[in-house]
User: Which sequence fits this backbone?
DNA sequence: CCCAAAAAATGACATTTGTCATATTTCGGA
DNA sequence: TCCGAAATATGACAAATGTCATTTTTTGGG
């Protein structure tokens, strides 16, 4: 579904969204442990995300990562697209070129409705929407 | 979602199910072209499937691959499990250990219903069910 | 009983993905 | 203005996946 990298990126971003702020930046090495991802690896991912304006970062002493107001409005799909590349979620279950509703492959209907449903959710929900759920305790963010 | 290997295996099995029979076996090299998969690669996959009694094979002259009555009754999930290993489809979108309906991760509800839905379909539908759809022209099997 | 056809087995190689280690740059504070 | 803290950059390495080539075994037919 998603690559490991995307999963890690999502976890890191969510962790930052909940725990960091401009006045309380978090260093890569302090994100690593709670989300259970090697430090150097999460650094590399955060650099990618930073370059794409999905997270904010400040170098030097008292530096670290956090999300500003704008960052929080990022739709979840953007994170996946940056890390995994576009339309990783777009292809048919069997990767058949011209599989569509008119000329479906045998497994098409097993996945089609859901896939669009999932995509809609990833497009319409922002990081901030997820944070609300976590703060309202309707969803959880363990390691 | 599935690995390439699983996709290829599914395509090969469906191709055999539609086009081969005990009296009309098909050689690996003749499956390769219509489903657009390298010959040696599809051979390896078919050997795997043959060892697990998902396809039938006969060596020597006039040999080849086909599906017998029993093979046709195989649920689709079995093919995926043999090639990709068990429960590749079981984990949560973020691969969080104890993510479930009671303690869902933030993305849980985006995927949960679909995943169970897809799994049910793969478990309850056999190769033969797919062949029926293809013959009834409600689904299609291009390359 | 040998020969050729075909599956089966084995292993080499390439690519992608994931992981780690080591520089390099930037910045604030003493 | 220099030092150390931290992000950033780069590249090496490992593992999984995908691809290809070669050899071995089995089998039917002449």
Assistant:
């Amino acid at each position: 579904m998603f690559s490991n990298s995307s999963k890690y990126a999502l976890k890191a971003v969510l962790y930052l969204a909940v725990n960091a702020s401009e006045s309380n930046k978090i260093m890569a090495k302090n994100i690593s442990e709670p989300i259970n991802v090697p430090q150097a690896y999460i650094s590399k991912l955060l650099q990618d995300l930073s370059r794409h304006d999905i997270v904010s970062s400040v170098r030097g002493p008292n530096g670290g990562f956090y999300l500003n107001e704008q960052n929080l409005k990022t739709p979840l799909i953007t994170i996946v697209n940056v890390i995994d590349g576009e339309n990783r979620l777009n292809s048919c279950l069997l990767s058949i070129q011209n599989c569509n509703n008119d000329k479906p492959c045998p497994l098409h209907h097993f996945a089609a409705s859901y896939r669009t449903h999932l995509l809609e959710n990833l497009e319409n929900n922002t990081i901030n929407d997820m944070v609300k759920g976590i703060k309202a305790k309707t969803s959880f963010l363990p390691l």
About this structure: The helical segments of chain A are 4-19, 28-35, 39-51, 69-72, 76-84, 108-124, 127-135. Residues 3-5, 38-41, 44, 58-63 of chain A lie near DNA strand C (CB under 10 Å from a C1'). Residues 108-124 of chain A form the longest helix (17 residues).
